[in-house]
Each structure stands twice: as C-alpha cells, then as structure tokens.
C-alpha cells in the first residue's frame, strides 16, 4: 500500500474543503496520537482502534493541555465550533487515506459530543462563577 504524505494529502483536502484551517488537521493528528498513547497506557501498551467518542475526549484533554483557557478561541479560529466539526475533519482525512475507519464508524459519532463552553471554558471559571451558572435544584 502506498503511504500517503501528510502535507500533500492536506493540500488535497484543503483544495476540496476549505472550512477548516490546516492547523486544525495537524492538531487532530496530534490529538489522535495523544489519545492512542493514553489508551495504550490503560491497555498495557496495546494499540487498538479508537472510537469517535474516545477521540472527542482525547481531543478535549489535549486541547486543554496545549492551549489552556485559549482552547475554544484557537479552535474557533480554525473553523472548529462544535464536535461535529471534528467528525468532518476526521472523515476528510479518512477519505484521502490519512486515517482508517471501521464499518461502524461514521460522522454521526461526533454529532452529540460535548458543549464547547462546558468542555473548554468551564474548567477555568472561578468557583464563585460556577455556582452562579449551576441550575437551582428543582422544587417539588
């Protein structure tokens, strides 16, 4: 099988779909590596396929680690505004041969991920502000 050159493949993807900045693809590839390493630690070094949900969680952790409170700003600058966008990036990479998928993988795996505000901003809000944002307990 012919190995796909990442830079050439990225140029082809961007020529077909310019919704996302090239940095979003580079970040996703790095986040996938990060996620595989995390899961490998849990599975005693065994490499296995990563589900869309697992990748979303890895992306969240990696973005917070890399960009801290600026994560949501950076992602939005790259055109990534919701989890569904990560699915589009993944499947653009699958279609060009940069990533592989199983028969059960689909873009919909990324559709109902997390809310970006909750995932990328809430971890940095002061406790006093978090208490104000919490919904009050329901009265019976």
Structure description:
The chain is mainly alpha-helical and 140 residues long. It has one domain. The chain has helices spanning 6-16, 22-42, 52-67, 71-77, 83-96, 116-121, 127-133. Helix 2 (22-42) packs across helix 3. The protein is globular. The chain starts with 5 loop residues before the first helix and ends in a 7-residue tail after the last helix. The relative contact order is 0.15.
SSE layout:
Layout: H1 6-16, H2 22-42, H3 52-67, H4 71-77, H5 83-96, H6 116-121, H7 127-133
Helix pairs in contact: 2-3
Structural features:
140 residues; mainly alpha; 7 helices; globular
Number of strands: 0
Give the percentage of residues in beta strands.
Answer: under 5%
| Portion in helices | 55-70%
Q: How do the helices and strands follow one another from N- to C-terminus? A: HHHHHHH
Unreliable spans: none
| Alpha-beta content class | mainly alpha
How large is the count of helical segments? 7
Largest sheet: none
Give the overall shape, derived from the CA principal axes: globular
Average of pLDDT: 89
- Summed up, the domain count is 1
Task: Kindly report how far apart the N and C termini lie.
Answer: 64 Å
Rg from C-alpha positions? Answer: 17 Å
Briefly characterize the structure.
This protein has seven helices and no strands. It is mainly α. It has one domain.
């Amino acid at each position: 099988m012919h190995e796909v050159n990442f830079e050439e493949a990225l140029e082809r993807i961007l020529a077909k779909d310019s919704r996302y900045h090239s940095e979003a693809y580079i970040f996703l590839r790095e986040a996938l590596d990060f996620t595989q390493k995390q899961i490998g630690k849990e599975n005693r070094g065994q490499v296995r396929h990563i589900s869309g949900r697992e990748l979303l969680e890895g992306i969240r952790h990696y973005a917070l680690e890399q960009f801290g409170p600026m994560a949501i700003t950076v992602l939005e600058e790259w055109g990534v505004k919701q989890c569904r966008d990560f699915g589009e990036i993944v499947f653009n990479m699958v279609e060009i041969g940069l990533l592989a998928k199983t028969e059960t993988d689909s873009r919909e795996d990324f559709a109902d991920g997390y809310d970006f505000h909750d995932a990328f901003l809430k971890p940095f809000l002061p406790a006093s502000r978090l208490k104000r944002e919490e919904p009050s307990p329901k009265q019976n």
